[in-house]
From TrEMBL:
Catalytic activity: 6-phospho-D-glucono-1,5-lactone + H2O = 6-phospho-D-gluconate + H(+)
Family statement: Belongs to the glucosamine/galactosamine-6-phosphate isomerase family. 6-phosphogluconolactonase subfamily.
Record-given protein name: 6-phosphogluconolactonase
Keyword annotations: Hydrolase
Single biological process term from Gene Ontology: pentose-phosphate shunt
Entry annotated with the keyword Hydrolase: yes
Record's keyword annotation contains Hydrolase: yes
Pathway: Carbohydrate degradation; pentose phosphate pathway; D-ribulose 5-phosphate from D-glucose 6-phosphate (oxidative stage): step 2/3
Task performed by this protein: Hydrolysis of 6-phosphogluconolactone to 6-phosphogluconate.
Domain Glucosamine/galactosamine-6-phosphate isomerase, first and last residues per copy: 28-242
EC code: 3.1.1.31
Length: 256
């Protein structure tokens, strides 16, 4: 991404959404800053109420964070880890977000954490059955102490995809469901599996939201979201629904 566009992004974000907590550490400190903040938030939650719930995103971006986080001295046995979205594809498939979490986060001492996948291991249920089972599993969990969000270059977050026929339901502030089946828009983004996704109200039950953003394409998208003069929180920009809200502290990492 053009350095000049990046230089304008942080001030533009802060002007539009002054409540956002922006972090822009030097490149060599970026991962340590992110891991330290995540670990500190989880330790504080355990100190406060004896346990912590961390909800993570899938995709490829979190791999470095997961591999660094799992080396942290955390009270792993007091942690519950879950996912904000899942791809509806067979158990063990390389595109499954739970596989990513098991392989890159829940290793070594971190394996002591309780993991609550959105789709149970075993034969793949129908999408509707998977959504109903995920709803029941999430209902049994306390609100997340921390949600680690991801964002696609199309401005989706969790699996709230622009153009999905299920997006309006997912972004409805009165939506009672914690998780919904999300059919993909046409043309479908890759990997083109239908999804399960946390809804906006479920994301906003969290105590903290964090988004580490990297990649020129995603920064360019964010620049377009901020520059939308009329309605940044439109169905075209699912991420903006989280950036604009003031109920839950939102920390955003930008590259330096
Ligand atoms: O499909 C997904 O995309 C987003 C972003 O993924 P990335 O590969 O660009 O990091 C991710 O946050 C979401 O959990 C995932 O299912």
């Amino acid at each position: 991404m053009d350095a000049a566009v990046l230089a304008r992004l942080a001030p533009a974000l802060q002007a539009r959404w002054p409540h956002l907590r922006l972090r822009q550490p030097p490149a060599e400190d970026a991962l340590a800053d992110l891991v330290g903040t995540v670990a500190g938030t989880l330790r504080a939650a355990v100190a406060d109420h004896g346990a912590a719930t961390l909800a993570v995103s899938g995709g490829r971006s979190p791999v470095a964070l997961f591999e660094a986080l799992r080396t942290q001295a955390l009270p792993w046995a007091q942690l519950t880890v879950t996912l904000v979205d899942e791809r509806w594809v067979a158990d063990g498939h390389p595109d499954r977000n739970d596989r990513l979490v098991r392989e890159h986060l829940l290793q070594g001492p971190a394996a002591a954490a309780q993991f609550v996948p959105l789709i149970a291991p075993g034969p793949l249920p129908t999408l509707a059955e998977a959504a109903a089972a995920a709803e029941a599993r999430l209902a049994a969990l306390p609100p997340a102490d921390l949600v680690l969000l991801g964002m696609g270059a199309d401005a989706h977050t969790a699996s709230l995809f622009p153009g999905s026929p299920d997006l309006a339901a997912g972004l409805d502030p009165r939506q009672p469901a914690r998780v919904l089946a999300m059919r993909l828009p046409d043309p479908a983004p890759q990997p083109a599996h239908p999804r399960l996704s946390w809804t906006l109200p479920q994301l906003l039950r969290a105590r903290a939201l964090m988004l580490p953003l990297q990649g020129a394409d995603k920064l360019a998208t964010l620049a377009r979201v901020v520059a939308d003069p009329a309605r940044p929180a439109s169905p075209a920009w699912p991420i903006a629904h989280l950036l604009q809200q003031t109920a839950v502290p939102f920390t955003l990492w930008l590259p330096h």
